[in-house]
């Protein structure tokens, strides 16, 4: 596959490139080697610097006073950037943790932080394991074949996060549809519509749903995460409707497609590397390492962005104040300088200093939960799995933000 550095840079802003792992990684490998701090001008997008080396992603994430999340926390088209800017100015834009910087970010993050600490998450493990078992049982009920993404992996993490939030099971299907419409992003099959108005319509539905939830938890507090958010105070004042809703939205969305993509991409990697599957089945103690290798391998979050507040020198390039950088996590996680043989899927990889959860003050709040969920699923599945193979061609999601497989047809036999 012959590709110029210019084409490789533009691939970062091409949703289709992310649906084709080989094409994406050919582009990222070329950028890491030839131009790791690359100025990219892609049609339909405001220009940005593409940051593809592990060390550089880390350096930028560490320096959260120079590199801010606002006003452009993730890659969007120039039209969408403009809409976001206008909405932010009018105070009606989505304002979640990833849209914020200090001091607001620190205060708002603290509201959810206790809930997501590893110790608190471990207490939830029995409930998560029960859900994992339910989905492995579902595979058995489905017989000897299924589309693993559509029938298993999109449901399980959403159910985990919605039960953490404390929503009734009867609302789960509606939430699944809404999160996919919002996060399906650039994939025409998942997204509700083309226009910003249609995207706004999905957001408004989310808002209406969660406003009701806030009202209910304020009237009658419970011990779930929704109640913690609804009744949180900052400087003695409750959060306004907008901020509470933004909090629910980020948790319901961030906690869903990320983990489901990891589980389906992890299973795909095990199918493609039967020696690694056997190794893991023979030595279940490797599971924690295997989970992190799946997360590195899939890197379901494709990028976040930062914007420089002052001029900054990086590898001889000058990033000017006001210019934005795209931090490419899939690229950092295949960096030859950090990972021994980075294109080898190794369930015993140790050390594994991947950046799939980001780094620094915005480090993924749900990392401990994502690890427990993934581990619980494979710990339930692997002892029962006698055989597994592909039953068709897997298909990737076209998105520049969060995604992985949208179809994984498999044939299997379970004990
Ligand atoms: C932020 C990845 C699962 C909640 C992030 C970031 C990344 C990430 C890359 C941005 C970090 C940065 O800017 O440095 C992932 C991956 C997951 C996963 C790879 C699964 C394998 C989850 C889950 C939840 C969650 C299960 C919650 C239920 C969040 C939240 C933030 C975040 C709330 C914003 C944190 C902040 O800005 O302070 N995640 N995530 N994530 N994630 Fe995750």
TrEMBL record:
Keyword annotations from UniProtKB, A to Z: Heme, Iron, Metal-binding, Monooxygenase, Oxidoreductase
Q: Which SUPFAM superfamilies match?
A: Cytochrome P450
Question: Which sequence ranges are marked TM in the entry?
Answer: none
Query: Is Nucleotide-binding one of the keywords?
Result: no
Q: What InterPro entries does this protein's entry cite?
A: Cyt_P450 (IPR001128), Cyt_P450_B (IPR002397), Cyt_P450_CS (IPR017972), Cyt_P450_sf (IPR036396)
Query: Family, per the entry?
Result: Belongs to the cytochrome P450 family.
Q: This protein is called what?
A: Cytochrome P450
Which organism does this record belong to? Answer: Actinomadura rugatobispora
């Amino acid at each position: 596959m012959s590709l110029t550095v210019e084409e490789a840079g533009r691939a970062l802003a091409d949703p289709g490139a992310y649906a084709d792992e080989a094409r994406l990684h050919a582009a990222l490998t070329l950028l890491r080697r030839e131009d790791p701090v690359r100025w990219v001008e892609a049609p339909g997008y405001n220009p940005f610097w593409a940051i593809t080396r592990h060390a550089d992603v880390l350096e930028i994430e560490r320096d959260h006073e120079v590199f801010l999340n606002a006003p452009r926390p993730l890659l969007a088209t120039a039209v969408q950037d403009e809409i976001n800017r206008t909405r932010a100015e009018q105070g009606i834009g989505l304002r979640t943790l990833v849209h914020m910087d200090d001091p607001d970010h620190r205060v708002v993050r603290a509201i959810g932080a206790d809930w997501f600490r590893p110790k608190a998450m471990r207490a939830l493990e029995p409930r998560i394991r029960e859900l994992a078992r339910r989905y492995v049982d579902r595979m058995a009920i489905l017989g000897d074949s299924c589309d693993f993404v559509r029938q298993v992996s999109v449901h399980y993490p959403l159910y985990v996060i919605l039960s953490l939030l404390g929503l009734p099971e009867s609302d789960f299907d509606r939430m699944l549809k809404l999160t996919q419409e919002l996060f399906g992003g650039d994939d025409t099959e998942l997204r509700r519509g083309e226009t910003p108005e249609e995207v706004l319509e999905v957001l408004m539905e989310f808002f209406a749903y969660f406003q009701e939830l806030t009202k209910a938890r304020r009237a009658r507090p419970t011990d779930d995460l929704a109640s913690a958010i609804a009744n949180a105070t900052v400087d003695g004042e409750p959060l306004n409707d907008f901020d509470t809703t933004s909090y629910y939205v980020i948790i319901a969305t961030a906690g869903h497609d990320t983990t489901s993509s990891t589980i389906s991409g992890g299973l795909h990697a095990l199918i493609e590397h039967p020696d690694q599957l056997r190794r893991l089945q023979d030595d279940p103690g490797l599971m924690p390492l295997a989970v992190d290798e799946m997360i590195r391998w899939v890197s379901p979050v494709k990028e976040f962005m930062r914007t420089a507040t002052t001029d900054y020198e990086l590898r001889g390039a000058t990033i000017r104040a006001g210019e934005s950088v795209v931090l490419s996590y899939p690229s950092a996680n295949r960096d030859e300088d950090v990972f021994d043989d980075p294109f080898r899927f190794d369930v015993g990889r140790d050390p594994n200093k991947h950046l799939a959860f980001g780094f620094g003050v915005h480090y993924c709040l749900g990392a401990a939960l994502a690890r427990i969920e993934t581990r619980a699923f494979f710990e339930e599945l692997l002892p029962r799995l006698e055989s597994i193979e592909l039953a068709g061609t897997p298909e990737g999601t076209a998105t520049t933000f969060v995604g992985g497989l949208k179809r994984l047809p498999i044939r299997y036999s379970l004990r």
